[in-house]
Design brief:
Layout: E1 7-10, H1 12-18, E2 21-28, E3 31-38, E4 41-48, E5 56-60, H2 62-73, H3 77-86
Antiparallel strand pairs: 1-5, 2-3, 3-4, 4-5
Length: 92
């Protein structure tokens, strides 16, 4: 995985298409980590909720998803947000 390609913002329509079946894996303040399944393929997303809009849907590459899950299992929210911030994902 190349640095800078860990995540990408997707339009709502693409999110709906790739996540016909959704499973919320983890909730943190202002965000949800979601596994989306469509046509037997799993895609990983972070949905960030902002106070001034409905939010942003961000597709996460599988290797980056593993890093996120490790931070969650370590129960280290500060480190998790530092990682997300390094990818340009911020809390409101």
């Amino acid at each position: 995985m190349e640095i800078g390609h860990e995540v990408r913002y997707v339009h709502y329509e693409e999110f709906q298409q790739k996540a016909q079946e959704k499973k919320i894996i983890y909730r943190i303040p202002h965000a949800e980590l979601i596994e989306g399944i469509a046509n037997g393929k799993t895609t990983y997303f972070i949905t960030v909720h902002y106070h001034n809009s409905r939010g942003a849907n961000i597709e996460v590459q599988p290797e980056a998803w593993k890093e996120i899950i490790k931070k969650i299992k370590d129960r280290d929210d500060d480190s998790l947000w530092q990682l997300l911030n390094s990818w340009g994902i911020y809390r409101r």
